[in-house]
Structures are given as structure tokens and as C-alpha cells.
Amino acid sequence: MSKLFSGTKAFSGFSVNDLAAAKAFYGDTLGLEVSESHGLLTLHIAGGTNILIYPKPDHVPATFTILNFPVENIDKAVDELTARGVRFQRYDNLKTDEKGIFRGGGPLIAWFTDPAGNVLSVLQD
Prior knowledge:
The protein is of the alpha/beta class. Helix content is 17%, strand content 34%. The chain has helices at 19-29, 74-83; strands at residues 12-16, 33-37, 40-45, 49-55, 65-71, 101-102, 109-113, 119-124. The strands form two sheets. Strands 1-4-3-2 form a four-stranded mixed sheet, with helices on one face. A four-stranded mixed sheet has the order 5-8-7-6. β6 (101-102) and β7 (109-113) form a beta hairpin. The radius of gyration is 16 Å and the shape is globular. The model has no long low-confidence stretch (mean pLDDT 93).
């Protein structure tokens, strides 16, 4: 079998229902580098990774975590994001603390959503 994609730099993408709100959230609230071209957004993630964000009028939020942001100190990250207006998710099947951090085994992790309802997380690296 040929190695058709072995040299291809793949990238991921996801939809939102409001490109302007996504650009403000990812650029201003999360502090990521965001560019806009041809009616699409590109997130420029550390390490040279790009993620495409595209508008979709009938957008349905992902029911799983689409982006995970590793951080050195989850308490500090959650506090800073909370100060920027981010609200952390609470799930019935996962016990989180008062900040919204799951400390029940595995990595320390906290989930939040973008303006389109897509699930994101910060997790302690």
C-alpha cells in the first residue's frame, strides 16, 4: 500500500454558527493567533499547527471535546479564563470542584464551550 498521506501536513477543522463571535473568543478571550481569509478563520497553534474554523448556518455543537489546551497550572488557567468571562461546564457523571476542575483520576481537566457551544478543555500537563 502506498504512503499516500505520509508527507502531508494534515489539519483539523470545526464549524461555528457565528464567525465574528468565534474570532473574538479565540483571539481575544483565549489569546490565540487567528487569521481570516476567504470567509474562514485559521487558528495558529504553537508548534506550527493550524486549525480551520468555518461557518455553518445549521451548525450543531460537537458533543465531545474538540480542542484540548495543555497548561502547566490548571488552577491558574481556570482562574484567568474565569476572569475573562469563561464559564466552566459541570457534568452529572464527573465530579468537579467549585472551579469546575475534575480531579477524580487521570489528568486534572476542566471543560468549557466556545460561543457556538463546541466543547474545549484545559488540562494540566
